[in-house]
Specification:
Largest sheet: 6 strands, mixed
Shape: globular
Structural class: alpha+beta
Strand content: 15-25%
Helix content: 40-55%
Number of helices: 27
Radius of gyration: 32 Å
Length: about 725
């Protein structure tokens, strides 16, 4: 299967090696007579394609599977008018051309028997074994009579879960959808559009993630033709008009061939035409197309080292376009893809894109996980490996993105939520890898933030995240990560802490969004701070920073993230039977501060320092204060400690933040959150929310902070009430 234009009638460029048109071969195969007393001609074509990849394969089981499929489907017709058996034969032929092993081909022949005939899974298991039975069950649809409108999303959920245990399930489904898309013309236009949209939103991204480019590119073209017929026809006309004898790619290919031959490098140079969607994308990107934009050069060599030798010769003998160089051999894509990409300038200034890979890499690039053969074989053969064991790419049969998908789908019990989230997840078609400080890695979608990394690493424990270090520097949770970053997540000691609703603005992964939404739903009073306390405290308070507060940097360091905490034990008694109590984040009272409280939404009492501006504001608007006092005569919270917000005024200097942090740690105080304002006239303002084991240690902590060189004042935070 090649990544050529999906239209079999489209003119193709001359190539150095003929390539199989799978659809033409499929039609030839299906025209052969079906004989009951010998291997049918259609299976003969499948066998020929299969033996090309697996010369020693035993075809007996394929013959038995065909006999069962043909007899069970006998009398059934497709909407096109063809006997139904032509469909499983065509699906099997697609997989055989990709190099699928015998078990996969056997299951593909039988993939519709349980769904559409009287054959049962028990019969399949008895005649063909557990593996074939599992694959057939994995691609069997759920009945609409049982699931109603949820049948389609729940079928895909079932299929994805089965794929988590055996990637061959999705290989069969992709080939099945490809043949159905090829014959979709007999359907009503509205049904064509519906199937094409599901293919675009779900199947094509899955084909991309599993690395099956040969199926993905043809599915893209078929969807393109249905959903955008005018643009498809325009692109088809452009491709037809571009075919001419003096093809500039031919000239460059000949020059590259001579260059490599003179250098003593054994290589095969091919012209690889772009498929329709690829041409369409290039046209949208560049406007008017050049003659070399309709294809790329493909250089195939024997060994990895030869790839770099070819690259060196091309960059030496031709003018390279450096911005087009990408090394996917040293850093493979998350879908197993490996290749060197470059572009060189040929005669007359024509620019040709060049792909350089080994024959093995090319097979994997075309067939993806199908090229693994049987990755579960018990013959001591390990699955294809491209990475260290700690890397999520280490097991291609269970890639990291699939593991994450299977994890979050368990939380998305509602079919509509699952279906919507699945489409959104698959729409994120580029991944990055970030490194953990313990040596492991995290695979995340491009654009993911520290919030996503926290939930990917810690699951629900990430609810207590307060910040991160990215490449050794303190960073906010909203920081967007780049490929290759090293990230260390920082968790609060207060296990009752919970996520802020603002985190949803920075979460890209379904796992993070579902976990955050679930926590906010389960803690409605705690998830949404009372506006009369938080808003009265003014923007930028440590417990609920303003949403538009900028990331701030002090000399030599950046500020850690700020977070809002959930409820905590306060050590405060109020005049209100059974009323929950929480300490206000605007003034963070600690013993022996004088207290006052106010009833807020849900009957809870928020306790402020008596002199807090927010408390004065609420008294001014007529809110009745509630008497509040510390729980014991000495005003101590020996069991749970106390939380306080301090403001340090200082002159800017290198290592100031590090020295202040060390002073705080020496006083046995934990930093819950911190902000550092940009220097103004060489002066820097630091705001820390700290957890102390005992309020009695507060005066000593403030003295220790004042003793840090450059610090000229440390005080308790006082946040002005908002005007009006």
């Amino acid at each position: 299967m090649s990544a050529e234009a999906a239209d079999p009638g489209a003119p193709l460029r001359r190539r150095s090696r003929p390539r199989i048109d799978l659809r033409r071969l499929g039609r030839v195969a299906l025209r052969g007579p079906v004989s009951r007393d010998r291997l049918p001609d259609a299976i003969g074509h499948v066998a020929e394609a299969h033996r090309a990849h697996h010369p020693d394969a035993d075809l007996t089981i394929l013959h038995r599977a065909y006999v069962l499929a043909e007899s069970s489907h006998r009398g059934q017709m497709r909407k096109s008018g063809e006997p139904y058996i032509t469909h499983p034969l065509a699906v099997t032929l697609i997989l055989a051309e990709l190099g699928a092993e015998t078990t996969t081909l056997t299951a593909s022949l039988l993939h519709d028997t349980v769904e559409d005939t009287e054959v049962t899974l028990d019969q399949v298991q008895e005649q063909f074994g557990d593996e074939v039975c599992y694959l057939v069950d994995g691609v069997t649809k759920l009945e609409k009579v049982d699931y109603g409108a949820a049948a389609e999303p729940e079928t895909f959920r079932k299929m994805l879960v089965a794929t988590g245990n055996d990637v061959r399930v999705m290989s069969i489904k992709l080939a099945d959808r490809l043949h159905n898309m090829r014959t979709l013309g007999v359907m009503r236009p509205e049904k064509q559009a519906r199937i094409a949209k599901v293919t675009r939103d779900v199947l094509i991204p899955l084909a991309e993630r599993l690395g099956v480019q040969a199926l993905k590119t043809e599915l893209e073209d078929l969807v393109f033709a249905i959903l955008h017929p005018e643009e498809y026809e325009h692109t088809r006309a452009l491709i037809a008009a571009a075919t001419r004898p003096d093809d500039p790619l031919e000239t460059i290919a000949d020059n590259v061939t001579r260059t490599l031959r003179d250098a003593g490098i054994s290589a095969e140079v091919l012209i690889r035409p772009r498929h329709f969607v690829s041409v369409h994308r290039v046209r949208r990107k560049r406007g008017e197309l050049r003659g070399t934009d309709f294809g790329r050069l493909l250089v195939l060599v024997g060994e990895d080292a030869d790839c770099y030798a070819v690259l060196g010769e091309l960059h030496t003998c031709f003018t390279p376009v450096i911005s087009e160089f990408k090394d996917f051999i040293a850093a493979p894509k998350f879908n197993l893809y490996q290749s060197l990409h470059t572009a060189v300038v040929g005669p007359g200034g024509a620019v040709a894109e060049v792909l350089i890979r080994t024959h093995r890499m090319h097979k994997v690039a075309e067939a993806g996980v199908v090229a693994l053969g049987n990755p579960y074989a018990q013959d001591g053969t390990a699955p294809l490996q491209h990475a260290e064991p700690s890397d999520e790419r280490a097991d291609p049969t269970r890639p990291g993105w699939l593991s994450r998908l299977l994890d979050w789908q368990e939380s998305a019990t509602d079919p509509d939520t699952f279906w919507t989230t699945l489409r959104d997840d698959l729409a994120q078609d580029r991944e990055i890898t970030v490194f953990r400080t313990d040596g492991g890695t995290l695979g995340l979608p491009a654009g993911a933030s520290c919030v996503d990394a926290a939930y990917a690493q810690y699951g629900d424990r990430a609810h207590t995240s307060i910040g991160a270090r990215v490449n050794g520097r303190l960073a906010t949770l909203s920081t967007v990560l780049s490929d290759g970053d090293t990230v260390q997540l920082l968790l609060a000691q207060d296990t009752a802490s919970g996520p802020s609703p603002d985190w949803l603005d920075h979460a890209r992964t379904p796992a993070a969004r579902i976990a955050i939404t679930g926590w906010l739903t389960d803690h409605p009073d705690e998830a949404k701070p009372d506006p009369e306390t938080v808003e009265a405290a003014g923007p930028g308070t440590p417990d609920e920073p303003a949403a538009d507060a900028p990331e701030r940097e002090a000399p030599g360091a950046t500020a850690p993230a700020r977070t809002r905490s959930g409820p905590r034990t306060t050590g405060v008694v109020v005049d209100g039977p059974g009323a929950p109590v929480r300490l206000a984040g605007c003034c963070t009272p600690v013993p022996p501060d004088e207290l006052t409280g106010f009833v807020v939404r849900g009957g809870a009492v928020t306790v402020h320092r008596r002199e807090c501006p927010a408390a004065a504001e609420m008294r001014d608007i007529g809110r009745a204060p509630v008497a509040a006092r510390w729980a014991d005569a000495e005003g101590r919270e020996s069991e749970v400690g106390c939380r306080v917000t301090l403001v340090a005024e200082s002159f800017g200097r290198p290592r100031l933040l590090a020295d202040l942090t060390e002073a705080i740690a020496t006083a046995e105080a934990a930093i819950v959150s911190a902000t550092v304002e940009p220097p103004s006239e060489q002066r820097v303002r630091h705001t820390y929310t700290l957890q102390l084991p005992d309020a009695a240690g507060l005066p000593g902590l403030m003295r220790a902070m004042r003793d840090v060189a450059g610090v000229y004042d440390v005080s308790r935070a006082q946040h002005p009430a908002p005007a009006g």
